[in-house]
Amino acid sequence: MRTDTPDRIRAAFADAGVAGRLHALDIDTGDQLGIDADDLVCTASVHKLPLLVALHERAATGALDLTEQLDCPPGGRTPGPTGLAAMLDAARLSVRDLAYLMMSVSDNAAADLLLARVGLDAVNRTTARLGLDATYAVHTFGAMMASIKEDAGPAGARALTDPHIIARLRALDPARSNRSTPRDLTRLLAAVWRDEATTPEHGAAIRRLMGLQVWPHRLASGFPFDDVHVAGKTGSLPTLRAEAGVVEYPDGGRYAVAVFTRTAQTAAVLPAADAVIGTAARIAVDALRAG
Asked: What is the pTM of this model?
């Protein structure tokens, strides 16, 4: 492995104007590379991945039926820009279709319906069973969004352009929000890809859903090849952009990568901050493949 790889990743983060943390893991050999990989990070929507694993763990034991139908009334839905969160009318969907919406378009309302069915305690028991000691779910996604609204104050979303307001958001404090580390997340991904997190049938279902994510602008942007498959889960909060996923090469190589970034800029649209997630992941994976 090139000795300058960490410096190249740090330089990519600096060029994009972000502070970055990364962990990359060769799922089959155990070779790894980290940049502040054990620092606690707020997971935002990346925590939908542990929820998905907990959901399938319960389904594998017969405690939950993935075809069970859940009512999705319009009132009280967790807010968000996608999926049920953005819809206006009542719906009724199966557990597995809600999981699809949660993973493919990061639907907050679907996630909280599933979380109500599974429970925060079950999610935390799953991560504890897998040895992910730094990973913990504190609250629902709706509670996270409500805390942002409360912390922003009467100015609402407009206040989120103020760095002083950003600094007081509980959702961006790992001590008070859903949290993990880049290393914990690659361990979780490796367990899913090795069928250690749950049964092979349910592991395959998790991998399928992760492969249906629609966002190409972060992790996948670093691997623009027809024969390289990227499956992941993004997460976003003001100034925070992240993704954890697995990159699979046609020669059988499998690499779990988790990248978390923070930027001092408060703009909602920062293409360079999104793209560097793919750039940093590509540098790390190339280094692991070079041996």
From this structure: 0.96
